Amino acid sequence: MRALSIEGAWVMEPRVFRDERGSFHEWFRAPELHEAAGYGLGLAQANCSVSARGTLRGVHFADVPPGQAKYVTCVRGAVLDVVVDLRTGSPTYRAWEAVPLDDRERRAVHLAEGLGHAFMALTDDATVVYLCSRGYAPAREHGVHPLDPDLAIGWPAGLTPVLSEKDAAAPTLAEAERTGLLPSFEACTRWYAELRDRAAVDGAGAPPRVPATRR
């Protein structure tokens, strides 16, 4: 796991074994995630999204607590995956970082509760799967407009963004901040500490490390 510039976000860069049969890689390893975050991913839901080229999804986030941590990869085609720091009071508030995810390098991105997530499909039938720490709860889930000039996310040139009606109607970052929609860095930090404490108390610490397996 390699830390990104935004606290609470990491990229997993697996070793991909290839031969004449195809390839094999481990796209999720609990010990590495626990070592990075200090607590594990309590899996509650797994989602699969298939998108046409140019589709832009996000920027999505959930109320903290409990928020919704995500572990994201692309199993077909390619996307530009983006993490946005929406936590007011954070040292990197308003910052974003992009990671290319595709079916060749097989990277994965983990983002902690309170961070915003978005991606743009670079190919047709781009298929993204992601593990979530909490299930879908419409009342707790929100969005910020992914084309907000104040965020100035560097989406790929030459692609016309295709947004859902909901994402197109999302507030700007300034509007979301003014109405108190955004999570605070203080609340998120307290929640991360509570999750670490829970992991230590109930024995949900890091699973034992095992060597990578070639199949």
Topology:
Elements: E1 2-3, E2 9-12, E3 17-19, E4 22-24, H1 30-37, E5 45-51, E6 56-62, E7 70-76, E8 78-84, E9 96-102, E10 108-111, E11 116-121, E12 126-132, E13 141-143, H2 165-168, H3 173-178, H4 185-201
Brief description of this entry?
16% of the residues lie in helices and 31% in strands.
Total DSSP E strands? 13
Order of helix and strand elements from N to C terminus: EEEEHEEEEEEEEEHHH
Structural class: alpha+beta
How many alpha or pi helices?
4
Record the strand order, biggest sheet. Answer: 1-2-10-7-12-5
Mean of all residue-level pLDDT scores: 94
Largest sheet: 6 strands, antiparallel
Overall outline = globular
Residues in helices, as a percent range:
10-25%
Low-confidence stretches: 204-208
In terms of DSSP E residues, the strand content is: 25-35%
Rg over alpha carbons: 17 Å
